[in-house]
């Protein structure tokens, strides 16, 4: 470009010449104009000068003091308070060695309407219990797996590069325990093992019932084939242990658990 400048060429001509010789991407027009302006000013040095950047006016100490005062401040709130872009705050916080991490659980702030609604519900429940046996009629149901044969892994000696043989039927043997209880104690319980439900009736007689197959296959629906018959048996047990009066009802809290055995 110095040769072209001394010959009196223009920046556009100097840009086209190397482009025709070496192809696209060799040099661009803005760079040619920049160099020609530099040569016109009398600077014929071909050494590239360091670029000038605007000095940073960001106050890192003010940012550090803000987050030390309140560690939960978000960068967008900091951007609104300091009139600085959100991404700028993020970059400077990283330079300061700060990382945005989760802390312990924090309770959500509830409004006055939420507080009043909770007080109303609690008061209504207490009044219902005073008028009748509301809390005594509450029944909770839950299920839990009972593992009676649990397998554990063991180590064996094998040659290098050879994988050990797998173990067949590695699934744990377990039974499903279902319990219904209230304030007075346990009303009914069952154990499901190998698709057979076992329980004891009001006369302490052992009873069992097999989950039916569908179309000759070992397939069943948890809701219709397991839970509904359980509710019938629970209803019979609670009628025997705690006979209801007229217009009384029982509220059941059930925790559904899928049985696939």
UniProtKB/TrEMBL annotation:
Highest taxon of the lineage: Eukaryota
GO molecular function: DNA topoisomerase binding; double-stranded DNA binding; histone H3K36 methyltransferase activity; histone H3K4 methyltransferase activity; single-stranded DNA binding; single-stranded DNA endodeoxyribonuclease activity
One term under GO cellular component: site of double-strand break
Mos1 transposase HTH domain ranges (all copies): 1-43
Gene Ontology BP terms: DNA double-strand break processing; DNA integration; double-strand break repair via nonhomologous end joining; mitotic DNA integrity checkpoint signaling; replication fork processing
A Pfam family the protein falls into: Transposase_1
Record's protein name: Histone-lysine N-methyltransferase SETMAR like protein
Origin organism lineage: Eukaryota, Metazoa, Ecdysozoa, Arthropoda, Chelicerata
């Amino acid at each position: 470009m110095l040769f072209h400048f001394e010959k009196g060429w223009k920046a556009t001509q100097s840009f086209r010449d190397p482009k025709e010789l070496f192809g696209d991407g060799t040099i661009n027009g803005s760079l040619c104009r920049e160099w020609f302006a530099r040569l016109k000013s009398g600077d014929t040095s071909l050494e590239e000068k360091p670029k000038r950047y605007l000095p940073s006016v960001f106050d890192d100490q003010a940012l550090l003091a803000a987050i030390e005062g309140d560690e939960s401040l978000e960068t967008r709130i900091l951007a609104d308070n300091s009139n600085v872009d959100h991404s700028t705050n993020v970059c400077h916080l990283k330079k300061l060695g700060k990382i945005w991490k989760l802390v312990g659980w924090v309770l959500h702030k509830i409004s006055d309407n939420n507080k009043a609604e909770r007080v109303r519900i609690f008061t209504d429940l207490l009044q219902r219990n005073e008028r009748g046996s509301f809390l005594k009629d509450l029944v909770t149901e839950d299920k839990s797996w009972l593992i009676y044969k649990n397998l554990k892994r063991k180590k064996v000696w094998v040659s290098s590069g050879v994988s050990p043989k797998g173990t067949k039927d590695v699934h744990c043997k377990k039974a499903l325990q279902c319990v219904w209880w209230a304030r007075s104690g346990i009303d009914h319980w069952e154990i499901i093992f190998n698709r057979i439900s076992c329980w004891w009736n009001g006369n302490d007689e052992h009873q069992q019932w097999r989950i039916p197959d569908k179309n000759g296959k070992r397939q069943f629906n948890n809701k219709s084939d397991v839970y509904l018959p359980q509710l019938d048996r629970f209803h019979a047990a609670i009628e025997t242990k705690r006979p209801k009066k007229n217009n009384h009802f029982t509220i059941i809290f059930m925790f559904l658990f899928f049985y696939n055995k």
